[in-house]
Amino acid sequence: MAKITYHTHDNKTHTVDVQKGLTVMEGAIQNDIPGIDADCGGGMACATCHVYVKEEWLDKLPAKEDGEEDMLDMAFEPKNNSRLSCQLIVSDELDGLEVNIPSKQG
Amino acid sequence: MNKTDVLIIGAGPTGLFCAHQLGIIGLSCEIVDNLDKAGGQCIELYPDKPIYDIPAVPECTGEELTNNLLEQIKPFNVKFHLNERVEQLKKTESRWNIKTSGGKEFDVAAIVIAGGVGSFEPRKFSLKECEKFEGSSLFYSIKDKTIFNDKTISIFGGGDSALDWAIELSNTSKVNLIHRRDGFSGAEASVKKVKELNDNGKLNLFTKYQMDSVSGDKNIESLKIKHDEGEIKEIKSDYVLGFFGLIMQLGPILNWGLNINKKTIEVNTENFETNIKGIFAIGDICSYPGKLKLILSGFHEGALAARGCFKYAKPDEKLRFEFTTTSKAAQERLGIKK
Fold it and tell me: What domain range includes position B145?
């Protein structure tokens, strides 16, 4: 288990234990954290699991695969710290990760 | 008025195979889809990407799968109503009256919702002021390109639509192309062309910029774009075009009184009927304990929903289980000549 903190747009903070091997997206869905739609189910075929990663964690994340940046072009208000949460696999290294969920995904 | 046994909402793989299953058991159907072609997510999201988990098909692309399904339902002459979104359902005694966005009307015995994750709609600018100009000087698709002749157009996006339109309109208009990063997701040749046009002064390319504000009275007059580092530029513009791909929205389905949970419709697993008698839901849009969002699950759900429709379409007849291998009736419907 790793602790992942999701800051939702209504200024609420949700810290949950997510099983290693699951993605940050799945952690949000399983714990009913609002704001992550994940329409395509984790296939990097939409941009509705978009999150902003807290700056200090950016370097610790796996590099983006080719398609991720392309999908982020279609995200709602993408920024430099934008990632698709379906591409972030929870591991010991990500224990304590904090992400902000945008105000909407569409 | 289009009268048929079943209306299928959604022309993705699940909807297409359900049409096949309806045809096999002797029911007629028509299909409505909001996109301009059949295939749903397979065509819109991953036409060239491989799929490896269709039973007995080791590998195929989204486009191939769609074409094969269309081939498979050919004998049934299914009528498609594309570029139409179902807006309204009304129960009329034992049947349903349906109205679409394009004003088409249907009279059917049952409805199968195979709507995926909803209908595809263009993704819009997040800026609130943009709504005011939508349809007059701000667009997400182009219907008549001649309105842009000799005008200044600002195009946002980095995919094929943005690049292709920037290239084409640069012949007749002054074009600004604005994208949030240096990389583009569009075709390499188009990226090269855009950069060439920029170097020759035929087009102005702004990368690492995003929309900051728009201003104008009735129509857009100028807009401000903001660089990653915070610098703001004001550019004069008569029109703004946004090409950020498509998002999926449930839309009017939400208003039909169905039990909806997290953007999906609850169904039973016996025949995939919803809480409303005569309305079925299959594929990604339905939910039940153990639901897998796989195409193969959608096929199974479609086969059972088709049989669920039978009692509404032919209340006085009894449906007998048959194999296509041996059923004369099924083979006749498939147009097989022996």
Answer: 124-244
Rounded average pLDDT over B297-317: 98
Within 10 angstroms of residue B209's Cβ, the number of other Cβ atoms is 23
Degrees (nearest 5) of the Cα angle B51, B57, B61? 35
Give ipTM to 2 decimals: 0.74
- A74: chain B residues, CB-CB within 8 Å: 123, 159, 244-245, 247
Where does a domain end: B244, B276, B302?
B244
Question: Could you tell me which CATH class the domain A2-100 is placed in?
Answer: alpha beta
The pLDDT score that the predictor gives to residue B249 is 84
Mean pLDDT of A41-70: 90
Question: Percentage of chain B surpassing pLDDT 70?
Answer: 100
* Facing residue for B228 by CB, picked from A40, A69, A80: A80
Q: pLDDT value at position B203?
A: 96
Chain Cα centroid distance, residue A22: 12
Residue range B67-85: mean pLDDT, rounded: 97
Could you tell me if B229 and B312 lie in one domain? no
Among candidate residues B55, B118, B113, the one with its CA nearest the CA of residue B296: B55
Distance between CA atoms of residues A67 and B59, nearest Å? 21
- Identify from A74, A76, A86 which residue to disrupt to test chain B contact, counting B C-beta atoms within 10 A and taking the largest count: A74
Handedness of CA B72, B114, B42, B179 (dihedral sign): positive
